[in-house]
What we know:
The chain is mainly alpha-helical. It is built from six helices and no strands.
Amino acid sequence: xxHSGCRAEEISVYLGISEGTVWNYKKQYEQEGIEKYLEDNYxxxxxxxxxxxxxxxxxxxxxxxxxxxxxVVCWIQERWGIVYSLEGCVKLLxxxxxxxxxxxxxx
Length: 107
């Protein structure tokens, strides 16, 4: 956009970044070239637990009844010292194939 004649002030408004960032990108482009911007540095989120820990969690959930995700969060923290939010734990449980079922009394 700078090469096309746009001012840094306009570019910052169009892209929602500061003018300083526009100049930093220009400087980095001049120093490192376009290859730096074409690199794929994306790393997918793999979760906090290892595959072995996930397997152990699945086994624990199959053996014992937990009434809420809060109980599961506490168990994970006590077992491995890993802190999950309630929402994060629910997403983990869904990913592992578990779902919430309200417990009912029966005679």
